[in-house]
Write a structure and sequence with these properties.
Blueprint: H1 7-16, E1 21-22, H2 23-30, H3 37-49, E2 54-55, E3 60-62, E4 70-78, E5 84-88, E6 99-102, E7 117-124, E8 136-144, E9 152-157, E10 161-164, E11 173-174, E12 187-193, E13 202-212, H4 218-226, H5 235-242, E14 253-254, E15 261-264, E16 273-279, E17 285-292, H6 303-311, E18 315-316, E19 321-322, H7 327-333, E20 341-351, E21 357-368, E22 371-374, H8 375-384, H9 387-391, H10 397-415, E23 425-429, E24 435-440, H11 445-468, E25 474-476, H12 482-493, H13 507-517, H14 523-533, E26 538-540, H15 564-577, H16 586-590, H17 592-622, E27 629-638, E28 641-646, E29 652-656, E30 664-668, E31 673-676, E32 682-684, E33 688-697, E34 702-707, E35 735-737
Parallel strand pairs: 6-8, 11-13, 14-21, 15-22
Antiparallel strand pairs: 1-3, 2-3, 4-5, 4-7, 5-6, 7-8, 9-10, 9-12, 10-11, 12-13, 16-17, 17-20, 18-19, 20-21, 23-24, 25-26, 27-28, 27-33, 28-29, 30-31, 30-35, 31-32, 33-34
Helix pairs in contact: 4-17, 5-6, 10-11, 11-15, 12-14, 13-14
Length: 743
């Protein structure tokens, strides 16, 4: 029997093969037998995990960074000529997805619009910049895959112009006479593409009027429609939710006398987790975490289940929530409201005085929350040492929670997790829906307390599913790739900071770097750079651990109202522990990998929508401040300019290269800086500068600034926290003259 190929020979075969290859082609080439199928699968999985091959759909593979000859792409915007620009749907390589410039559709067919998916024939394009091989393609439509034409969300400007709200769209659309739906100036509208000639502006028809720019609800509406977030529930799902009733005790464990409490934000409307702690005779603590029993109401393959799976998760905007479940459940029967009996899944955990979990037990119960508390209430009561009087709870209840939290915090510290210090801000709206303030988001011990209880419950859930040999929807977070670690090492070397060699990196190594620069001018820069070096967390049925939390197994269990992954974990526990109805079905179990890919995508979509909404609110907030100056910090350095964050509001914008002082600017990618060749001045990541706002567009959420400060010379840049030595000169990089055309 032939030996299994080496990693290098397998990687080389995939790289040298035209298009995509699958296990059948690999087995035929290396003359492998059926008995080696499982070993080959493991080898491919290892290569995929290390980024040496990339999945290309239906168990086929390509070299990382290369697209197959034909693949499914989604239209994201237009170029300046109005032709569609797309990206691959299933891109899993490092860095941004390749750009696909779609050719115009045949005469007489509607133009491709944002959101449309097509099967496209791809041809690699010659690159305009060094090191860009394979990142740009020309695409020709083989088959349109969406049932309906895409939609263009934009602002109508009479008599016939539609300005897309998506900043990725570089061209306007034309609305012919009779297709305006009587829309008025500055109305936000949805339009559908019409058949157009190959050249010039593409034609579209307005199909829906959504309100005026600046209306209280317009910002989140733009984000919802731009990203295709489902808003309406199906009639069948609403009917199922309406028929829901409270869970009966039956065979459930009766927890109604246990004083569980919910601790959430002051503006929270749904409460899906409750906690309890008491000292144990052994010197540790007994903890109970109870979670709303969503699986009791949302059964596999029901209308509610299908709608929830499409959504994947709830999406939170400053002015509204787009829930995963209808309100009758999310704010009703699945919300752990105080003094009302509710079905729950619970985990009882024992920890020792050092915060190590020594035992756990899962069950299905009936509980009754003793109080609905806010983070601020709990923190204030703890700090004032009179929780009993202030919150009306039993003697020592809050103190026991905090004592258990301190033990868990000690275990977290010894475990060595990554503790990034990145400021967060909250958009505060007035009654009219306008931005009243941009406030720092507080980070209290009460927030951390709930997080630690939830993390421990999630670990217990993953361990229990492994013990029961049930499918688990793990929350995975891969270590940084070697490429990202090399870039991080290069940056830290300019600060005289080193990291252990590749393959041995641990979160505590990165945390030591953060501790070393804490409290210095370098701290924001180093925190940002380490954040950007991290892989993206995702869901998957195969466990690779959670790097950031330094955990070998982790599964989301604690928020089934707002995350579909947690609902699947509940169903798997119900099946494994034989806890009754609502258990995981066999079709679901076999589809875990596909479900994981989908809900990881919906999570990324939600994060993008929430970030986009905040950007648009901030742009509206800044719109009347054009010409004003602000203190800012450089948050990104690129060859085409600087990204900056305004200190007092957190607003993000761009300083184009053309707005920098006249010089020949060299992009130092490793040092994350722009160096002026003539003046010897430098702009670098996290540097404090003064900027002037030159443009604010609430429609797209874009802000443009101009630099007002003279950039410091090399001698003025922040010193490393210890053992300073002169930073090396700029590494060879892209040189760009201010105002010169970029090709």
């Amino acid at each position: 029997m032939p030996d299994l190929p080496s990693r290098e020979s397998l990687r080389r075969f995939i790289a040298d093969s035209p298009g995509r290859v699958g296990k059948r082609e690999i087995a035929r080439h290396f003359k492998l037998g059926p008995e080696q199928k499982e070993a080959l699968r493991g080898l491919l999985r290892s290569l995929q995990h290390d980024g040496e091959v990339a999945p290309a759909g239906h168990r086929r593979f390509t070299p990382p960074g290369r697209l197959p000859d034909a693949c499914v792409v989604v239209v994201t915007g237009t170029d300046r000529d109005g032709d569609p620009v797309a990206k691959p749907v299933d891109w899993q390589g490092e860095g941004p997805a390749p750009v696909v410039f779609m050719q115009p559709e045949r005469r007489g067919l509607p133009a491709l619009a944002p959101g449309e998916r097509v099967l496209a024939r791809l041809t690699p394009l010659a690159n305009t910049r060094p090191g860009q091989t394979g990142l740009r393609y020309e695409g020709r439509t083989l088959k349109r895959l969406t049932d309906e034409p895409g939609r263009i969300l934009g602002v109508f400007r009479p008599p016939d112009r539609l300005l897309p709200t998506d900043r990725r769209a570089k061209a306007e659309w034309r609305i012919p006479a009779g297709e305006t739906l009587d829309a008025e100036h500055d109305e936000i509208v949805l339009a559908s593409p019409l058949p157009s000639s190959t050249y010039g502006l593409k034609n579209a028809r307005i199909v829906e009027r959504l309100g005026r720019v600046g209306d209280a609800r317009s910002v989140s509406l733009i984000c919802i429609h731009t990203l295709g977030i489902p808003v309406e529930f199906s009639p069948d799902a609403l009917a199922e939710a309406k028929r829901a009733r409270g869970a009966a005790l039956g065979r459930r464990t009766d927890l109604r006398d246990l004083p569980l409490v919910t601790i959430d934000g002051a503006d929270a409307r749904d409460f899906d987790d409750a906690v309890y702690a008491e000292p144990a005779e052994s010197g540790g603590f007994r903890l109970v975490v109870a979670i709303a029993d969503v699986a009791h109401y949302v059964r596999p393959d029901s209308a509610l289940d299908r709608d929830a799976r499409v959504r994947g998760n709830s999406v939170y905007f400053p002015d509204r929530v787009v829930p995963m479940l209808p309100e009758a459940l999310s704010n009703g029967w699945c919300s752990l409201k105080p003094h009302e009996p509710r079905g729950c899944l619970f985990v009882e955990m024992q920890i020792d005085a050092e915060g190590r979990k020594t035992a756990h037990r899962f069950g299905r119960g009936l509980m009754q929350s003793a109080a609905r508390l806010t983070y601020e209430q709990v923190q204030q009561a703890h700090d004032a040492h009179d929780a009993h009087d202030m919150l009306g709870l039993g003697e020592g209840r809050i103190e026991a929670l905090y004592a258990a939290f301190r033990a868990l915090l000690g275990a977290r510290s010894r475990r060595g997790t990554l503790e990034l210090d990145l400021p967060e801000r909250k958009v505060v709206l007035d009654e009219a829906g306008q931005v009243a303030a941009i406030a720092p988001r507080p980070r209290l011990d009460s927030h951390k307390l709930i997080e630690e209880f939830m993390v421990l419950a999630n670990v217990a859930a993953a361990e229990e599913l492994e013990r029961l040999r049930q499918p688990a929807m793990y929350r995975i977070h891969a270590p940084p790739t070697e490429e990202k670690l090399d870039a991080l090492r290069g940056f830290l070397a300019t600060l005289d900071i080193s990291l252990p060699p590749g393959g041995t990196i641990h979160p505590r190594d990165l945390d030591r770097v953060l501790a070393r620069v804490a409290g210095t001018d370098l701290a924001p820069m180093v925190n940002e750079t380490i954040l950007r070096s991290q892989s993206q967390a995702a869901y998957h049925p195969e466990n690779i651990g959670h790097f950031g939390l330094a955990l070998t197994r982790y599964a989301h269990f604690t928020s089934p109202i707002r995350r579909y992954a947690d609902l699947l974990v509940h169903r798997a526990l119900i099946r494994g522990l034989k806890l009754g109805l609502g258990a995981l079905s066999e079709p679901e179990a076999t589809a875990f990998e596909d479900i994981a890919e989908r809900i990881s995508g919906t999570e990324r979509r939600a994060a993008l929508a929430e970030r986009d909404a905040v950007d648009r609110y901030l742009s509206a907030y800044m719109a009347d401040k054009v010409g004003a100056s602000f203190a800012a910090r450089i948050s990104g350095v690129t060859r085409f300019g600087l990204f900056v964050t305004v200190l007092d509001s957190g607003a993000n914008g761009l300083i184009p290269l053309s707005s920098l002082p006249d010089d020949f600017w060299i992009h130092d990618e490793a040092g994350q800086a722009l160096h002026g060749r003539r003046t010897r001045q430098t702009y670098r990541l996290a540097q404090l500068i003064t900027v002037r706002l030159t443009e604010a567009s609430p429609v797209t959420g874009g802000l443009l600034f101009a630099a007002q400060d003279r950039p410091p010379s090399a001698a003025d840049t922040p010193s490393p926290p210890a053992r300073h030595k002169p930073a090396p000169g700029p590494t060879p990089g892209r040189q760009q003259r201010r105002g010169a055309p970029r090709r």
